[in-house]
Amino acid sequence: MKPSHAPVPITRRRFIGAAAAALAVSPRRVLAAEAPPRGRRLGVALVGLGSYSEGHLGPALRLSEHCALTGVVTGDRAKGERWAREYGFPTRNIFGYDTMARMAGSPEIDAAYVVTPNGLHAQHCVAAAKAGKHVICEKPMAVSVAECDAIIAACRSAGVRLTVGYRLRYERHYAEFARIARDGDFGAFMRIEGANGFEMGTPDAAESHWRTSKKLAGGGPLMDMGVYVIQAACMAKVEAAPVAVTAAFGPVTRPSLFSEVEESLKWTMEFADGAVATCRATYAETVSTFRAEAAHGWARLDEPAFFYDDLVLTTSRGAVALPNVNHQVAQLDGMAVEILTGKPSLAPGEMGRRDIAVVEAIYAAAAGGGRSLVKA
Ligand code: NAD
């Protein structure tokens, strides 16, 4: 199927209305979204060709039904040329981070997908919006609420869509978990537990390069892995944000790696109805668990709860039989359908901002040795 490159018409009012409605939208309805017009694909430029782009998003763009890779932004021209050859887009659609404004002249590019270190998301998302491109921003959306606000404002004033790369939002096990929460199958979830982490390699390991830098990562495992737990807990609470948090940093066992960001962190989130989520994020061990309990039953994403592809949802009624999908393909196709048909996003910028507001409160609580209120 050949891509069509007509720009997607979207008015400012429609964008704001869609974003406001998005936190309440039904995942089932959006997963079953109608297809875009025949032959219309979303042209995507990947901004940053690191391990996630190379290992997951690029391959997913090949398999995607509704997207095509039509450009890249990279600091390495030769790498961009290799991608252009392999993915069949014109070399005029290779840009540098300082020449992103020129994407405005590339009608084949509808959306820019920002996959750079967290501390650069705001700069690259704002540049993409100013070039008139819809923005997909990897998680975490940015390293502060102020940066999230800047991204949201830039997308609003450019009249482009903004969505956060929360792949699990487009995945069926989490969609069913969200439905269970929303429909109250077991009552309201009141006790939630989640942990997510991996053992960080040596300082020269690829994953260590920017993830241990405060400036580039914004924080440690809370930013990188903890956002998944915050996401799932808010899903359990039908997208309510917690009202308060408590938090404590874990011990630093490898000071050569963790001089700028935490090695591990434990926190709780208190919700307005009295529900409590007990959570943990770590770079000291591999862990990936999530469970939510209500008065009349429970639901659990079996370990590993947040990894790619092979998820299992079990409830107090038994295993829930659902097909596994390639997360990145499902996410890219889901987001393309949203943008091409004007549907509200399952992962709008406002959701990314909510999660960073929680992260800020958790860091404040950990630093202050106590409890912090979450600012809306
Ligand atoms: P990576 O280090 O492999 O790639 C980062 C890319 O950014 C590289 O191409 C690098 O050259 C580029 N870059 C541009 N300016 C840079 C600078 N000043 N310093 C360092 N790199 C710079 O990282 P990654 O693992 O691909 O992660 C990128 C983003 O994707 C992060 O925000 C991460 O949280 C997110 N991510 C998401 C998932 C997911 O499942 N949704 C998985 C992995 C990573």
Features:
single chain; 376 residues; alpha/beta; Rossmann fold; Dihydrodipicolinate Reductase, domain 2; nine-stranded mixed sheet; 12 helices; 36% helix; globular; disordered N terminus; binds nicotinamide-adenine-dinucleotide
How is the topology of this model organized?
Layout: H1 12-22, H2 27-31, E1 42-47, H3 51-63, E2 67-73, H4 77-87, E3 94-95, E4 111-114, H5 121-130, E5 134-137, H6 145-158, E6 162-164, H7 172-183, E7 189-197, H8 208-211, H9 214-217, H10 221-236, E8 244-249, E9 264-270, E10 276-282, E11 287-294, E12 297-301, E13 313-315, E14 318-320, H11 327-341, H12 349-368, E15 371-373
Parallel strand pairs: 1-2, 1-4, 2-3, 4-5, 5-6, 7-10
Antiparallel strand pairs: 7-11, 8-9, 8-15, 9-10, 11-12, 12-13, 13-14
Helix pairs in contact: 5-6, 6-12, 10-12
The structure holds nicotinamide-adenine-dinucleotide.
Nicotinamide-adenine-dinucleotide (NAD) binds at residues 48-53, 75, 115-118, 120, 138-139, 165, 167, 209-210, 216, 224.
